[in-house]
Amino acid sequence: MIVVYTLEADHLAARPAKAGDALPDNTVWIDLLNPTHDEDIQTETWTKTAIPTREDMVEIEESSRFYTENGGQYLTAPILYFTQDKHHAISPISFILTGSFLVTVRYAEPRAFSLFVSRASKPGNGLINEKCSGVTILLGIIEAVTDRIADILEGVASDIDQNSHTIFRRSDNDKPMTTKNFRDSLTRIGGQGAFLSKVRESIAGVSRLLVYMAAITEQNSYKKETKAWIKSLERDTQSLSTYVDFLSNKITFLLDTVVGLISIEQNAIIKIFSVAAVAFMPPTLVASIYGMNFEFMPELKTMWGYPMAIGMMIASAVIPLLIFRKKGWL
C-alpha cells in the first residue's frame, strides 16, 4: 500500500496512491506499507531511487543500514511494534531521504507512525510548516518513536514494581508462596527481561540512525534548529538507554531474589526431612533392640516391658525434637 502525504500549509494530507498514478504536487512523504513489486517500481519511478527489499532491510551490517546511493540517503532502524497476537516485536523500517521528501518502507505498523500521522494531520500542530521537508518528517517520526518507547517503559516499570511488591511486601497473614507462585513470578520477570532486550535493540538502532543523521547535517547546510533537534533526540535516546539499563538491573535483582527464595524453600523442606530422619533414628534403634527376642532379655517376660519400650521410643523421639527447637533448628 502506498500513502502519499502532501504539504497543506501547516499540516499533512494523506492521499492513497496506486501503481500508475502521478505523484501529487507538494509531496513530502511517501509511505510504503507491505509494498508489492509494482508499488516498489512505481515509487522508484517517482523518486529515481531504488527501494530496498525486505531481505535488504533485515541486514544488520552498518554498511547495509546506512549508506548513500544515487543521491539518496538510506537509513534503516529496528522499530518496536505491537503484533496482532498482543506481543511486542521488532521490525526494520527504512527511511530514504531523496530530494526534498522522505520515503519510508515498512512491513509492520508501529503505533508511533499512527501517532505521528494523527498529530501532523491536524492544522496548527506546531510541527509542520510551509518549509517542511523530508528531514522534518523523519525527525518527527523518530521523536514519536522515542515517546512511544518512553510510554512503554513506564508500563514495564509499573509491572516490575508490582512484581517486587508481590515478592517483598508479604505480610505475616499471607500464605507462603507455592511452586505455582514461584513459576508465575519467574515467567513474568523473565518475559519482562526479554522484552527489555528488544527495547534496548530498538533504542540502539534509533541512536545509530541519529548519529548518522548528525553526520549528514554536518556535511550539508541544514538549519541550526534541525541540528539542535537531532541533538535533543540523541539525549532522549541516551536517557532511555540508561533507564533500560536501570530496569534490567532490577529485573536481574528480582530474578536472583526469586531463585534465592526457591533455594530457601527447598532447604526448608530438606531440613524437615532431615530432622524427621534424625528424630526417628532413636525409636528405630529401641524397636530394633527389643525386636531381637533373645531369651536372656528380662523385659520381655515382665508386665511393664511393653509399656517401657513404647515409652523409651516416645522419649527418644521427643527429646531430640525439643533440643532442636531450643537451638532454633526448627
From TrEMBL:
Signal peptide bounds: none
Keywords: Cell inner membrane, Cell membrane, Ion transport, Magnesium, Membrane, Transmembrane, Transmembrane helix, Transport
Source organism: Phyllobacterium myrsinacearum
Catalytic activity reported: Mg(2+)(in) = Mg(2+)(out)
Gene Ontology cellular-component annotations: plasma membrane
Physiological role: Mediates influx of magnesium ions.
UniProt similarity note: Belongs to the CorA metal ion transporter (MIT) (TC 1.A.35) family.
Pfam family, one: CorA
GO molecular-function term, one example from the UniProt record: magnesium ion transmembrane transporter activity
Organism superkingdom: Bacteria
Lineage: Bacteria, Pseudomonadati, Pseudomonadota, Alphaproteobacteria, Hyphomicrobiales
NCBIfam families: corA
Topology relative to the membrane: Multi-pass membrane protein
Transmembrane portions of the chain: 272-292, 304-324
Record protein name field: Magnesium transport protein CorA
Subcellular location: Cell inner membrane; Membrane
SUPFAM superfamilies named among the record's database cross-references: CorA soluble domain-like, Magnesium transport protein CorA, transmembrane region
InterPro entries to which the protein is assigned, alphabetical: CorA_cytoplasmic_dom (IPR045861), CorA_MIT (IPR050829), CorA_TM1_TM2 (IPR045863), Mg/Co-transport_prot_CorA (IPR004488), MgTranspt_CorA/ZnTranspt_ZntB (IPR002523)
Keyword presence, Acyltransferase: no
